Amino acid sequence: MGQTLDELIDLSIKNRLVDSYKSDLESLKKEYDSVKSGYLPSLNLGVNYSKANKELASTPDNNTTLNASIDYTLYDGGKKYDRYSSYEMSIKGKKEDLSSIKNQISLDVTKYYYDYLSLLAKKDAKNKEIEQLKAQYERLNRFLEAGTTTEDEIQKIISRVQSANVSLHEIELELQTIIHNLKYITGQTVSIDDGSFVEPLKQEQIQSNRADINSLKFQVKALFEDASAQKSDYLPTISVSNTYTHADMNYDNSDFKAPYDEQNIFSVNLKWNIFSFGETKNRFESKYKKYISAKSKYEYEKNRANVDLQLAKKAYEIAKLKIDSAQAGLKAANSAYEVIKSKYQSGLIDNVAFLESLSEKYEAISVLKSALYDIEVKKANLIYHSGKNLKEYIR
């Protein structure tokens, strides 16, 4: 049993490339959790043991010290919230990247699927043409034996058959190439089952909203927050800490006595970098220029995406016209073939005209099939460039 287009897409969006994007997203989420945890109060414990080679009043023979401290930053100039916003924008961007790669793979698989079916139709038409040529060969061969035709008439048909066989081998190679590419994407051997189609997009839904463009937008916002975070270094940092220390000082000399065995110190700390030879300014300008660069790239890609969407719309309209043209072409080719076949069998024309009309008939059949499959690809392309989830439109 072969796979439908929907099944092929299901297999494709579970490949290792998609897994890589998922891992990137999960990694960034964990990094964000780590950053948030770093702004929570921290508790530190420490134990120290010392042994002196000479005891003094201030230095006991041996000493064990236990300390515990809690530290918390009350204010850092707003850097914390800028960093939070930067990570949130980056995570949104990674989610859009994941959606984008899935949609791109879905589009690639859709193209392979319909290209494969189009080649099968071409192969089928070519086989039928060969059958007709062989039937004519048998017919002319009998006439040759009766002396009512010439050898060159036979050779023309043989040449046509050989040419058609070469085309068949080329088509077979293209079919195998597509299967190989699908195996590369899905990670397993696949076969293709006809019958799937792409539901057309409603006119009111056609607007540019591609995930890769949204990802760039979030990247721009993340870089802006990174630049804003650098400004916080112009402002003071305020923190509080509390440290408790317990000391167990053991003196051999009873004349010595420890002045204390425990201590608790609470402190409020302020740090303000008043002057740093332009370090903060240059760091901010560097980040800001990255933001400006990314913003320019986003605007460029956004405009290009709108152009791509307009081209996809136009290509879809042309694809519909191609079907009408192919249907008219097939009707004309069939009519011409029947007339020429009748004249040829009556001996009114030679087999050159007949062979041409035969080829044109099966070429017209192939063209119509290709046009019908091509419009499915054009619909898929339009859905992709509008930013919709292509898989949702596969039936």
Number of helices: 7
Poorly predicted segments: none
> What class would the helix/strand composition place it in?
alpha+beta
What is the N-to-C order of secondary-structure elements (H for helix, E for strand)? Answer: HHEEHHHEEHH
Instruction: Supply the number of structural domains.
Output: 1
Looking at the overall shape, the CATH architecture is: Up-down Bundle
What does this structure look like?
The protein is an alpha+beta fold. The chain has a single domain (5-37, 65-247, 259-388), classed as Up-down Bundle (Outer membrane efflux proteins (OEP)). The chain has 7 helices and 4 strands; from the N terminus they run H-H-E-E-H-H-H-E-E-H-H. The chain has helices at 5-12, 16-38, 79-146, 151-186, 211-231, 279-345, 351-386, and strands at 42-51, 62-75, 237-250, 262-271. Strands 1-2-3-4 form a 4-stranded antiparallel β-sheet, with no helix packed on it. It is elongated, with a radius of gyration of 38 Å. The model has no long low-confidence stretch (mean pLDDT 91).
Chain-wise SSE layout:
Layout (H helix, E strand, L loop, with lengths): L4 H8 L3 H23 L3 E10 L10 E14 L3 H68 L4 H36 L24 H21 L5 E14 L11 E10 L7 H67 L5 H36 L9
Antiparallel strand pairs: 1-2, 2-3, 3-4
Summarize the structure.
With 395 residues, this protein is an alpha+beta fold. It is 66% helix and 12% strand.
Q: Key features?
A:
7 helices; Outer membrane efflux proteins (OEP); 395 residues; alpha+beta; elongated; 4 strands; single chain; four-stranded antiparallel β-sheet
